[in-house]
Design goal:
The structure is a homohexamer.
Chain A (H helix, E strand, L loop, with lengths): L3 H5 L11 E7 L5 E5 L11 H11 L7 H6 L5 H8 L3 H11 L5 H21 L8 H10 L2 E6 L3 H13 L6 E4 L11 H9 L8 E5 L2 H9 L3 E5 L10 H5 L3 H17 L4 E3 L6 H12 L5
Parallel strand pairs in A: 2-3, 2-5, 3-4, 5-6, 6-7
Helix pairs in contact in A: 2-6, 4-6, 6-8
Chain lengths: 293, 293, 293, 293, 293, 293
């Protein structure tokens, strides 16, 4: 019997080489778009968390240095407090005004206060004052699932999701930083969300994020990434503050934020989520051509 | 001020194109090797589950058709029973011998019996009679984490893992099909395991599996994949049955299994896990050259 | 503080490898088109220099072999004379008709005569009798800068540039072979011109040339290249001579010239500069896709 | 006559497509290594220029803000002064202490003083206290030419080059920022240097630089690039200051500098020039395989 | 004379490396489409050969096992008989009903009977009941040549070709398995056909086939390949049998056949030849972009 | 039943796109090396055919122009005579010396004389005076098959093959230009030879040739190609004539021949067949890495 199969193929375990090599690539459609929350989907200036912390510590006569607020942005809330109390200048101020440093129990207490404050601040910053209706209609029409990764604790996020739904932003699944063991740039949040959304392939997912670490998270998860340069962490201005800038100032911020996000590896950089439709269309075209994130 | 940055970079939101394009690739070391259990790590012929089902139904005078046993191999156990009771010929036999078909409660009862049977059969097939010591020493020396994805329920897996540890196969984390919402080829098991192993990038993971669907699972998760052609589902023979084959018969099985696994997209195909070291070394070299799974 | 950055990145100085690899590509617009002069932009048959030499030596009763004229085409003018006086047959003729060979001073004298002759011949061949208006309008509209590399000495070129401007061909900068230390295929002329045109990236430049060495010059400079097969050195016929050829003869010349230019590495080959617009458009599309020259 | 050439090749001028496509790549050896001067080849902390400015303005009771010193680092010297006098706070201080702002003539005067100061500071920082002998011996043995691009004015550079030669660093050609019309990241300095070094192809050149803009300059010139993370602008510490840091502090600086340089597109990042030999060897291997910068 | 050519190019025979590397690619048009006959161009269910064999052996009271019919499908006819008479169960039946096994002469006799039967069966299955007119008009309009590779002996094929011509399917050249020394997946049939069609490059050919081995044949010949999933060997049903299936059954068959053909390496998989026009257009676009099969 | 296969794969016939894309590559060993005869394997200067023609016409007092001899080199012998008698100057000479031009019958007569002459000349040039023993021992040891494509008629080739065998060059199969319908650069000879050698894939074949058209033939056949620069058509000198050249003359010829062959697309260029072993080893390495010709 002319068994040509056995002629043309050999196993590779040190005895005989394989004649043929097969390479599989995903070339289907996008299946899910996963958004970061603060700075990307809500809270134009990514300022709510910082404001909440600031206001909490103000009650204790303590002023937080601005760069510290950025440094804790990726941490779950209790970890934020622990991080702050490890900083010398904050420790000193606290001891000066409050006596001894908080113990575990008092930290828990402070954390509860912090969450209350975060809910207030987050609700004030809920809307991202750009047109997101059109892009979410497009996403629904294409049948993409919508995921969210957030650094808010589960309580706050649970509060916000229904409010977003009322504005036409329906989330299929969300994951909180409290659900995973590693903060960004580890891919934990994005992968956990993708599994919950029942995607078929990581190459079928798009991560949208305003922060460098969020872009890295998406890349580490094997996903396409879109950065937002104007809403979010880099700009760190409310929409009103942004509107009061001169064109030159805006161009400078946009250029620097865009370059940073591209250099982190973002496949696309736009101003805000209202600009992502053409990116999603381009990703579809590239997937069809057999390109990968 | 000669702000050349703003000259050479432009944002992409429909107004002005970006001059530069940045592409990031993971080029570090392998971080985790994730093994399928049955047919790959234990149970040379991938026969334990089938035997357990067979023996259970034999108690009720029912003979299961062989191809059915393969068809249920990827399902959690209760789903296996439901699948079988949806098949006409099995329904008929059952009704003939047992009267009415089992209701939900009776199915649960049967499922408990099935698990008992599975533990017996799995323990009999625990050892994969090939040298795995050398390869696991290599894996430990390289610092790779070891994960396992299994289709056994959590009870059985919990039983087996310590027995494997005694043989020198130390598992850092394992996930059961019962933990996820979608069976293979969806990437759920592999991704859940990778997150639990705290890997930095999906490109840093290697999935080792004897089945086509397991290879697809790894590819969908953005991982490297190694197929085992002789141990496992395709061969479906115990080590004794395999040893009694002629060289010609073995070559035919090896060729066909190897070709199937390659065509499913496996990056490497070997006989058993004792052959994977050179594959892991080649993956390291390819990662270093900037290649991706 | 969870400094993930320091986890995921390592320097490469022999101690620890880098996990990530970044690749930057220019994907902006064309910034400059750099034309060869003789045979490409003026002088359809690339014959002016040869005619000038021929006429100069005819005054001394010396007949120059035709292939010699091609051989000196890339040299600055004094070097052309020295090259010719190193050829035995020319030396012999000269000595026979003029007695002793020219010394340095006499060579300088001859060179002055040669330049006068070149200006006459070049002016007669100034126009490239094809439609270049359309293509230069396109170039201006796109905002591309226009450069010229020429093998004429600076005097002659200075004369010709204003005449070209009158015909609608406005040159932003030109460089003469006399300005650089190495003739083509070295990239000196093209790079010097690009720097003077203030281009941002060599990948943003296009070299248009009728000669193999000019194509190589462009490639060595990291630029895109377009060859002209009918105007220029290979054809070496005036427009009138070309028009008198049969279709078969023309096809043969066109095929051979085209193949030679492609084999030298030209990205595109056209008949004359009036055909380059579609090439420039294709280069724009390829740059946008991230392709490089 | 069976003219198969004319069968298989057609010109591309809108009439008939070309059947064949040819692609040329440089695959020879490295021909030149072009070093930035300050922070790369001399002046470990890239502090000389800042010190000179600081000391100059101190004479007029003016304190320069540290980030300003970094901002002017890429400018020719007169432009540095003009840049500083455009800053409000400096203007104010000057007017307060010196009355009216300097006119053109006084600026020239200040510039002469600045140069004197620069020569003093530069000479103090001449040596890069790492082993550069070995690497320059390797470079010479390989036959690579050595170029330097510097932001010092020509006077200072002329002074320094012979001093470097005494230490075994022989420079074949150097170019000053004063020689070109555009500062980095434009490719002007690197290309001008390459032309003067008579290289055959830009792909045969390697740019070594400690600054992001210098890496971009190399990439824009079509060259390979190596960044130095510890010596130079990012660290901005003298060797003594560096040696007094803890390992943790050093790791943090190294990680951040390395990541920045990689993200700017550097092909390799090392600590200092004493680590570049393995990079040069790897570039040779990649050129041979047909890879491009 | 400045012979730069000899500077920039070196031969590679162990003495000096070549500086430059040239790569040629075919980027012209498709020149030929080569069809498999049974299951692709005629005989929707690829059943004629099996029917002929079945009917022949039925005359001798022998029932052939269905999988055997598939196994012989690639063999020339006499080899089919020899293959069958090597199978134990068939030998047994034959001896039981006919006494001794056929000798060479009797085999020849049986072969003649087989051919008669094949002609009958083939003629009954001649038409592929899908619209092939449109696609063959497209093929003619594009100027592609049409080839056929068939496993019928030359007599039968000679009979069928004119009948196809009557239906508008004009074949420029056909080759029979009897003409070559190796059956598929060896590339013999496809290459022999391509040579006879006077194609310029194997990359300019497209093989259309319903079987895995036929797809492999095309790939081995360096050609583009299109698989037909519904007509042909995998489905193995007549058009009537197919029409009577439920949508679910059809989807299952289509999915499995499509996946098998893709995994064998087919560049495209369609239902039947009536769907290939868009594939041919896509191949043209890919050839133009410089892609290869 | 959770039939994930049908979820993840869709056929492509205009209704639903395929999610996955599979790409197959040959990565086995070289299977055959196919040599051109004249100028590559025998007849160092590729002069035998020209000498035979010259001597034939000399008998009739006719001098053939040298470039004509090169032009006919790819034609079967009768076609050579017809080609020559279509040239005006030859017609004139013939009519002047012999009266009327030869009719078909006389041409046949002349052709017989030509073959006799060719046998004489070919035998005189049989040996390629370089060491081919080592390379043919390597080829045999590797198990590569050896093919030959020749432009000699079958009579002459039949004569020469046994003589080569005596020198240790054993040919497995040879094909004459008389066997195919199209001369080079069509791939007919190479493909016909490969089929006769029973190769599995065109990517497993290497064509070795001294002429541009032979290199193109190999590329058109989808094969790897090696050009010989010193033996063969370009040099067109006997080994004695070559040995009498100065080093400068040899370098010039080698450079030009090498560049021509590379530009035609040759993957490798060497001096003579005695240098091809390292090329074959490099092709093996590239095949293993998944590269294609």
């Amino acid at each position: 019997m002319p068994d040509n199969t056995s002629d043309c193929v050999r196993h590779v375990n040190g005895r005989a080489p394989m004649h043929l090599n097969y390479h599989r690539k995903y070339c289907g459609k996008i299946q899910a778009v996963i958004f970061d929350m603060t700075g990307t989907l809500v809270d134009f200036g990514a300022k709510a968390n910082g404001q909440a912390l600031q206001q909490l510590f103000n009650q204790y006569q303590i002023q937080l240095p601005p760069d510290t607020l950025l440094a804790v942005a990726d941490l779950p809330d209790l970890a934020q407090l622990k991080y702050l109390f490890a900083i010398e200048s904050i420790k000193d101020q606290w001891q000066q005004h409050q006596g001894s440093l908080p113990d575990e129990k008092q930290l828990e207490q402070l954390n509860i206060q912090l969450r209350t404050q975060q809910i207030v601040c987050a609700s004030q910053q809920l809307s991202l004052p750009v047109d997101s209706k059109t892009v979410f209609q497009f996403i629904r029409k294409q049948g993409y699932k919508v995921g969210v990764c957030t650094h808010y604790c589960r309580d706050i996020a649970s509060d916000l999701i229904p409010q977003l739904a009322e504005e036409g932003i329906k989330i299929d699944h969300w994951v909180s930083a409290a659900d995973v063991s590693q903060p960004r740039p580890a891919p934990h949040l994005a992968l956990t969300c993708a599994v919950a959304l029942d995607i078929l392939s990581v190459s079928a997912c798009v991560k949208v994020d305003d922060s460098l670490k969020g872009i890295e998270e998406g890349l580490n998860a094997g996903m396409w990434t879109i950065g937002t340069a104007i809403s979010g962490e880099y700009n760190n201005r409310s929409i009103n503050e942004w509107n009061q800038l001169s064109n030159t100032e805006r161009d400078k911020i946009r250029s620097e934020a865009t370059l940073s996000l591209y250099r982190a590896g973002a496949h696309y950089v736009v101003d805000t989520i209202s600009d992502i439709q053409s990116c999603l269309e381009d990703i579809e075209a590239r997937l069809k051509r057999g390109e990968r994130p």
